[in-house]
Amino acid sequence: MTIAPTPPDSAIQSRKADHLRICLDDQVQCKEVTTGLEHYRFTHCCLPELDAQNIQLGTTFLGKPLQTPLLISSMTGGTEIARTINTRLARVAQAHGLAMGVGSQRIAVEQPQLSDTFSVRSFAPDIPLFANLGAVQLNYGYGLAECQQAVDLLEADALILHINPLQECVQSRGDTNFQGLFAKIADLCAYLPVPVIAKEVGNGISVAIATQLLEAGVTAIDVAGAGGTSWAKVEGERAEDLRQRRLGQTFSDWGIPTADCLTSIRQVHPTLPLIASGGLRNGLDVAKAIALGADLAGMAYPFLKAAHDSEAAVHALVEILMAELQTVLLCTGNATLADLQQSDCLQQLPL
């Protein structure tokens, strides 16, 4: 199937701009459902026998070294402000050795003149960089060629396939045919020369679906659980009719909490490369996610707010996150992230 080029003043470009504007508003954060991380607490070690200066935050993901287990989660592209934000994020990711994903590149596939709003490899030559397309587009004309185009544009180390049925249901004129996608994902994984990461967008991935995705050939999972930005709320805010606005309100707190996704998947798949995202807001959240079995911790909203301000604000945010994570390691008596995961210092609070 041939994909028709999108007109220059496209609905998709307008949607990208709306998403950025709305996501900067705290009102689209989940209010009733939480990440579940608040149900866990570290046991304090008052005499850790460690020098904080010797604590190591380094790790690897998909064979790529990182200075700290942080992923700048997929956010944006396709507009001028998105170009500025992606450039700022990429420069900071390079400076601090973070991984980074970009927003959906569908607009770049269909409007190549906007591809440079995503092209950040020149600013971040050494970091793990993840391309991004919606899995549902495999039912709307996309295939190996388009996925390879997204990867090539970014010189990416992996392709994120984001999975977002609720968002598409609430979105005006959303793409809602998710039938037969496991088989198409399996075909893509068999032929794409880089790993495929399956990612939700804030409603979580259950252990059953994670297992099916792994059987289809997906290399890693980003749980992207509930508790952070609600894309039902986001799409409800920009809805064009009462029906879509009502859907956004009804399903604003829908999903599986991030901690529940993480613990259930890790229990069944102990060696799966696993990313925890969805509502993580500080280094303590990152530490809890790592202790529960995540290999990386992804954040979007905090980085978006900082990058919208300035590159200096992004640098400051990363330094704070690293200091918070280092403090957790010192005050639990763990010198490395591996030590943290192997210890029993994180306890679930009684319900």
Automatic annotation (TrEMBL):
GO terms for biological process: isoprenoid biosynthetic process. Transmembrane segments: none annotated. Its cofactor is NADPH; FMN; Mg(2+). Its main location: cytoplasm. Residues 13-105, 182-343 form the FMN-dependent dehydrogenase domain. SUPFAM superfamilies: FMN-linked oxidoreductases. Homooctamer. Dimer of tetramers. Involved in the biosynthesis of isoprenoids. Catalyzes the 1,3-allylic rearrangement of the homoallylic substrate isopentenyl (IPP) to its allylic isomer, dimethylallyl diphosphate (DMAPP). This is Isopentenyl-diphosphate delta-isomerase. The lineage of its organism: Bacteria, Bacillati, Cyanobacteriota, Cyanophyceae, Acaryochloridales.
